[in-house]
Amino acid sequence: MRFEKNYIDGMNKTFFRFFFIGLATVFFAACSTSTVSSDDEDLESSSSAESSSATEKSIYEAVEESGLYTTKDSVAAYLCKFDKLPANYVGKNEGKKIYESKTGNTFEKWNFNPWTTINVMIGGDVFGNNEGLLPEGSYHEADVDYSGANRGTKRLVYQPDYVIYYTSDHYENFTKLDIR
Questions:
Q1: In the chain, which end has fewer C-beta atoms inside a 10 angstrom radius, N or C?
Q2: Are 90 and 125 within 8 A, CB to CB?
Q3: What whole-number distance in Å separates Cα of residue 138 and Cα of residue 140?
C-alpha cells in the first residue's frame, strides 16, 4: 500500500511539473511574438527583448501601401518603402480646409487633435531647418503619435533618400532613424 501511495504521489508531482513547465513555455512564447494592432493598422512589438532593428524590419515588411499609419516606426517604414506618406496624411493648408468643412468652424489654430477630429494626420509640408540642427538639405515634416487634445510635439523630418529624423520635443533634439 505504501508503495502505491509513493508511486501515485510521484506521478502527481511529475505531472504537475510538466504541466507548469508547459504552461510557462506557452506564456513566454506568446509574450515574445510581434503583433499587429488593428487600430489604424499600426504595428507594435510586444517583446521588449527584441532588438529595435528586428522590430523595424518586421514593420518595414508589414506596412502596406493601402494602410493608414500614425506611429513613428510605421510611418518611417512607409516612407522608406513607398517614398511618400500614407494616404491619411495631408498638408497643413488641406488640414485647415478639411477642419472648416467638417466642423463648420473657422480655423484659428491647431488646438485640436486632427486624427480624432477630422480623421487626418498632418504632414508633407516643408521643414525649414532654420535652427541648423540637421545637415544641410531639403526636408519635409510629418506629425506622428498624436495623443491628447492637439498635434503634440512628435515629428518625423525626412528627405526622399530614406534619411529620416525623429523629434519628440518639437524640433529641439533629433534622432536619426535607421529603417533599412
A1: N
A2: no
A3: 7
Residues classed as catalytic: 141, 170
> Where is average pLDDT lowest: 24-33, 83-92, 157-166?
24-33
Q: Are residues 91 and 155 in the same domain?
A: yes
Q: Are 148 and 154 in contact (CB under 8 A)?
A: no
| Residue 126 identity (one-letter amino acid) | V
First to last CA, the chain: 68
Least Cα distance to 62 among 24, 36, 28 occurs for: 36
Distance from C-alpha of 145 to C-alpha of 149, rounded to nearest angstrom: 12
Structural domain for 139, as ranges: 82-177
In a domain, 41, yes or no: yes
DSSP secondary-structure letter at 107?
P
C-alpha cell at 59: 514593420
Rounded distance between C-alpha atoms, residue 140 and residue 72, angstroms:
15
Q: Does 74 map to a domain?
A: no
Buried residues in 141-172 as b, exposed as e (16+ CB within 10 A) = bbbbbbeeeebbebbbbbbeeebbbbbeeebe
Q: Specify the pLDDT at position 56.
A: 54
pLDDT (tens digit, 9 = 90+) per residue, 85-134? 999 999 999 999 999 999 999 999 999 999 999 999 999 999 999 999 99
Residue 117 in contact with residue 98, Cβ under 8 Å? no
